[in-house]
Amino acid sequence: MASRPAQSSSSAFFVTVGRGLENFAADEIRAKLLASRELGCQLGLALTREFGWKADLRKPQLEVIAHLNNEAFIVGFPLTRVSLANRSWCRSPGLRATVAHAVAVLAGVQSGAKVLDPMCGSGTILLEATMEWKSAYYIGADIDCSQLSSASRNIASSKQSIDLIKASVLALPLQSSSVDVIVCDMPFGRRFGRGNDIMSQTRSSLQEMIRVLVSSGILVLLVSQTMSQEVIKMVEDGKCCQYKTQINNALVDITKCPGHARKCKPDERACGEDASRTVYVLSLQEVVPVSLGETEASIHKYIKIRLGEKKDELNRCSEPSFN
């Protein structure tokens, strides 16, 4: 049994509370945030009453972190004075480094792999990957010049090697099937708009990512909790495919040919009439929930496969070799 903390009036603390915001409308989210503050107050009062500690928001000796979602209530204490997300090379802040590291780890970068972030922002995900897997080749793309400038400053500070290009995720200047791994922090509504617009842009973005990804390549996405199920359904419905066909004994990408169907149900009947056509789709491998403070998100891991591959073949693809 854990020992009871010693009562001391000299112990100063403050409480940080986070709550899962999935599946709630805007007014309900505001209500939950207010409830989070109330929960923090009640937890602080309980600590004061139980152990004689006093709250101090300016110079606390201890931080108490609580996170409440639909499944659990977790209370923890940071063991380091410096945040694990702190990076000495960070000159232009972007995605929290610990979350970026989790995305990079799930990607399972292999030696010699070509790794792309098509919406790299300040380059945090790629930089986290370069710290662990230095023998891969990294490319960061973004349509925003200010974001590329931020990434350039961080790369220079970290002394890592990443090539940057100005390009839209909707039209990447890369050959089909030329990238082994794609990592991406998907927009959380602001850059792509909302409603049908963001779904259309997301579908087009995924279509382009599939195009440049090699067969058995890895795609890892960070998506908002509200978008998570929408993206999964989009992939499962076969709305993001790459089409190739035999022309003069050469395999030609026809995904963007005029008049070509942009939707293909993932079953043999949908695409089996033309035996010369090959269809590539994404296979969901893993979903990992993460917290971004007041926002909840999920990391999705996919593998690009040929339509019709068996389940046991998919399992063997979970750790692909990029030769």
Automatic annotation (TrEMBL):
GO terms for biological process: tRNA methylation. Residues 1-79 form the THUMP domain. Keywords: Cytoplasm, Methyltransferase, RNA-binding, Transferase, tRNA processing. One of its GO terms (molecular function) is RNA binding. The keyword Methyltransferase applies. Its main location: cytoplasm. InterPro entries: RlmKL-like_Mtase, RlmKL-like_Mtase_CS, SAM-dependent_MTases_sf, THUMP_dom. GO terms for cellular component: cytoplasm; tRNA methyltransferase complex. It is found in: Cytoplasm. Belongs to the methyltransferase superfamily. This is THUMP domain containing 2. It comes from Eptatretus burgeri (Inshore hagfish).
